[in-house]
Structure formats: structure tokens, C-alpha cells
Amino acid sequence: QVQLVESGGGLVQTGGSLRLSCATSGFTVGDYTVAWFRQSPGKEREGVSCMKMNSDTTNYADFAKGRFTISSDIASGTVHLQMNSLQPEDTAVYFCAADLVLWPSLHPGVYDNWGQGIQVTVSS
After folding, report:
1. Which residues contact 25 (CB under 8 A, 6 or more apart)?
2. Residue-wise pLDDT tens digits, 4-48
């Protein structure tokens, strides 16, 4: 079974940084597309970043460009999201997702495998 477990969230001040990690198991990681999503109270889940595990092609939401970086380590089966220059509006539960998506997508509906989510809170 595919399993995804997020870690690295927490509380950070405005302008600070956090590095989220997603430990994967149960599938051949090099065959999968992985993505990060986030959801705050009262809002829809939105894509943050995505990539194929075995490629250098990455995709970012506009709000993430220049601040967030997605990366993968196939050897360990880990996906990271480095978040810099965090703002209060980045406060949300962040989710890792993975699936056999032909091309990376920031649409949550194309992913069937999800982590439990982890809280990121940016204080002002």
C-alpha cells in the first residue's frame, strides 16, 4: 500500500523558513508524480508544487514561485518542500500527494494517494 507521511511543520515567524518532508513507501518512487497541496480553514485545497520523482521538471503555483522549492531523493524515497520568506497567508495544513500521473498536475483531483497533512503556522 502506498503510504505518505509528512513531517517538518510547525510554527515560524513571518519571514522565516521551514522544510517539509514526505516519506514515501509502498511504490516505486521513480515512477510517480509527487505534489504538495495546502488547505486553510474555509478555503479549497490548492496546489503548491509538483514534480516527477525521476525528473528535473518542476511546477509551482504563482504564490510559491521564488519562495518554495520542491525536491526529491529517490534513494530514500523522500520528497521535500523548502519554504522561505513565509507569510501569514501561508498558514495551512500541508499535504503530500502521489500518483501515477502522466504529467505533473496541481489539481488535487488527479491524486489518489495522500498523506495525513501537517500544520504550518506563520505568526505575524
Report:
1. 2, 3, 77
2. 999 999 999 999 999 999 999 988 877 899 999 999 999 999 999
Element (H, E) at 19: strand 18-25
Interior angle at CA 69, CA 56 and CA 67, nearest 5: 140
Contacts 24+ apart (CB under 8 A), 7-13: 7/118, 8/118, 9/94, 9/118, 9/119, 9/120, 10/119, 10/120, 10/121, 11/121, 11/122, 11/123, 12/86, 12/120, 12/121, 12/122, 12/123, 13/122, 13/123, 13/124
Task: Read off the C-alpha cell for 53.
Answer: 520523482
Name the average pLDDT for the chain: 95
In this prediction, residues 92-108 reach a mean pLDDT of 93
